[in-house]
Amino acid sequence: MFERVLGLPAHPLFIHAAVVLVPLLAVAGILYAVWPGARRHVRWTLIVLAVATPGAVFAAKESGEAFAGSDNFQSPQLQADIETHEGFGNNLFLVVLGLALVALALAYLVRPLPAGSVGPVAAHWALAGLTVLLGLAAFYFVFKAGDTGANMVWNGF
Fold first, then answer.
1. Residues 82, 83, 85, 91: is their CA dihedral positive or negative?
2. C-alpha span between 37 and 137 (Å, rounded)
3. Residue pair 106/127 in contact by the 8 Å Cβ criterion
4. Structural domain count, the chain
5. Among 23, 60, 69, 131, which residue is least crowded by beta carbons within 10 Å?
6. Residue 10 is part of which domain span?
């Protein structure tokens, strides 16, 4: 299912959704967590991104595993590079899944409040801290997965 789209390898097509959605989810989550004024503007965007992004990363990961099985990629050096790239992709999926769950909890528990109101402070700070950490980890892993993949494709050209 994740091997080809209209005869083309699916992985180069699917990764673009992950490369766009992961940073958007991280930014929206961090904004929602640390800037109360942004919450009423970002809440539904955060919820949509928290639902869509893990699916995009999963499709990219699964299509990459199917792509790696191609007969063209069987040299030992290339397989070692693929393993490194795959490790970053697997870590990215786990981090994005965690970020999405924390972002949904944050959007549910820490709603935009009228001026002067106080929300669930302990839940807010715990979820905000997790959101920032997972958001930064998502930035790191999407960069490393993309960098290792791009180096495999473009190194030597």
1. positive
2. 24
3. yes
4. 1
5. 69
6. 4-154
